[in-house]
Amino acid sequence: MKCRVCRGPAVIDVRRHNANFCKQHFLRLCRDQTAKTIKQFSMLSEGERILVAVSGGKDSLAIWDILIELGYEVDGFYLGLGIGDYSDTSAEYAQRFAKERGLTLHTKDLLRDHGFDVPNGSRAAKRAPCSACGLSKRHCFDEAARLGAYDALVTGHNLDDEAAVLMGNVLHWQTEYLGRQLPVLAAQHGFPRKVKPLVRLTERDTAAYCLLRGLDYLVDECPIAAGNKHLSYKAALNDIERDSPGAKHAFYFRFLDQAADRFATAQPEDGAEVVAPVSPCTNCGAPCSNEVCAFCSLTMRATEAVPIEMGATRRRKVSP
Amino acid sequence: MKCRVCRGPAVIDVRRHNANFCKQHFLRLCRDQTAKTIKQFSMLSEGERILVAVSGGKDSLAIWDILIELGYEVDGFYLGLGIGDYSDTSAEYAQRFAKERGLTLHTKDLLRDHGFDVPNGSRAAKRAPCSACGLSKRHCFDEAARLGAYDALVTGHNLDDEAAVLMGNVLHWQTEYLGRQLPVLAAQHGFPRKVKPLVRLTERDTAAYCLLRGLDYLVDECPIAAGNKHLSYKAALNDIERDSPGAKHAFYFRFLDQAADRFATAQPEDGAEVVAPVSPCTNCGAPCSNEVCAFCSLTMRATEAVPIEMGATRRRKVSP
To answer: CB-based contacts of B232: which residues, under 8 Å, 6+ apart?
Structure first.
């Protein structure tokens, strides 16, 4: 097994490229594919203030590392979700990465700063854990970018993630979501620009990248995500990819090329942007289309009566 | 396990309806679902001349039987594909069904009437067997309907078939195919109206229908279709359906409702139909957009030098 680039001994095969790579050229492939994505979708510009959402997993550490390697200045943001040991350990990986490189890592913690954690808060709010977690992350990431005056918020979504989300949206023909499932969303209404520079790399690629770069990351999957539909879509796509290497890439990139436009919200003929009425949340000031934003509503319900441990409960007013 | 309708002992569960049925009410369910589909999509009208493509498998015998039960007058058309015992046996099932009921079954045979069979012809023409088979069936079914002056051509495509085709089209974002993947295609340019009244029933439903109605059908799958991508899409959808009963139905019917229009070929603003230039094939007279239709091209290549057995070959001119 020889490296496609230098013909030296290869350490990894990449079936969808029908090629093998040595360590050096695999790492370069990952950086080149990321740089290509950033350029293709005009994700980032030199000198911009960039914030990356860091979980301590392979994807977020890989993208932070790659962006630094590519010469960007990037701060990190970590949100503690309160999912037991899983969250404690993920925080350590994120902090260690930042500390060893002298990078800035901002942190927030749902329980400390908002009075609930994902397992108990979602139960109290009668919301699926993954749904409450996703809403909390979106809100806190957006807020951190807005309050920190960052130009762009980077997330580590990879090709497997995006293809699985696309599969879910397609299986239900969620036309509104399909219209917005893009690797870059422009800043608007107080929300930061959001970019996903890893959409050309798979989970296996980012795991191999971390391994070969010597980056320690949290290998465990989230313990409460088991049974999540997203995971069954990933499994279905993995079966298809096994029979047809490159199927996931084609599914996602041909969607962007051939279909995404067809689901975009209709624009008026004069070219003016359709602006949904957006005003600050009366509680936290985040841009939203109701009086109180979805995260503050969740927080209110989640902190009404949260059983913390052994039946103890506490009430807590909403803090933004 | 009790029948949802009469509370008598049930013989089958239908998970996507979250219900069980006795024999009588399951058969009625199948007929009602088919009648609903025919009405919803204006597939057939009373007094029309209807032709059903019959393979001898569960789907085509079920739809022929259901249409007769619903009061339609329907003739059958069987095409011999020359796939060894599989084809011989399937012909017997089709003929027996027709004979026992005094129904008309027209037959054609690829080897007898066109000089090639699917296994050898596809090899000679350097075309995948399933592709050569599909093209041959479309052509011969269309021709039988046209020459027999039938108003509509019925096929036994079920929900599993249509969902799997949709999955293939979506995985590759075949926008042209997506624009045409409808349960009814209007007659145009000399092609008959084509309708798929079984799209609300699954493979399991049609198999159970045949079993409970005492219809003998060919159970074996086509021996040369193994490895066909279509089958891996079916497997992926079955995995998803297992986790989420009703997922296939939602995938297909929400596509029709929410997305199919977005892939339809653009129509001129004055509402006039876009007419691709269509003229008769100079060889067989079928409507086509080239001088010679795709089936006659296939026939020419397939009969150039077909090794029939033990290396014997023969040449044969194209016969329409």
So the answer is: A239, A240, A243, A244
Domain ranges of chain A: 41-263
Helix or strand run (H / E) with residue B279: strand B279-280
Tokens of B218: 């060919």
Buried b (16+ CB within 10 A) or exposed e, B237-275: bbbbbeebeebbbbbbbbbbeebbebbeeeeeeeeeeee
Is the pLDDT score of A319 beyond 50? no
**Contact status of A233 with chain B (Cβ, < 8 Å):** yes
Phi and psi of A191, rounded to 5°? -85, 145
pLDDT for the residue numbered A217: 94
The whole-angstrom separation of Cα A290 and Cα A310 is 36
User: pLDDT value at position B224?
Assistant: 86
Whole-angstrom Cα distance, residue B52 to residue B161?
A: 17
Q: Which residue in A166, A171, A238 has the most chain B C-beta atoms within 10 A of its own C-beta, making it the best mutation to test that interface?
A: A171
Superfamily for domain range A41-263: HUPs (3.40.50.620)
Q: A232: which chain B residues are within 8 Å (Cβ-Cβ)?
A: 239-240, 243-244
Cβ contact A229–B243 (<8 Å): yes
Cα A79 from Cα A286, distance rounded (Å):
17
What ipTM goes with this model? 0.86
CA-based radius of gyration for chain B = 20
Two structure tokens written together for A40: 């293709």
Question: Domain spanning B38-266 has what CATH number?
Answer: 3.40.50.620
pTM of the shown model: 0.89
Percent of chain A surpassing pLDDT 90? 78
Positions of E strands within B36-113: 50-53, 74-80, 105-109
**Contact B308/A at CB under 8 A:** no
Element (H, E) at A80: strand A74-80
Interval B9-64: pLDDT, tens: 999 999 999 999 999 999 999 999 999 999 999 999 989 999 999 999 999 999 99
On whether any CB of chain B is under 8 Å from the CB of A5, the answer is no
pLDDT, tens only, B251-278: 999 999 999 999 997 544 454 555 567 8
Q: Is B264 on the interface with A (CB under 8 A)?
A: no
Dmax over Cα atoms in chain B, in whole Å? 64
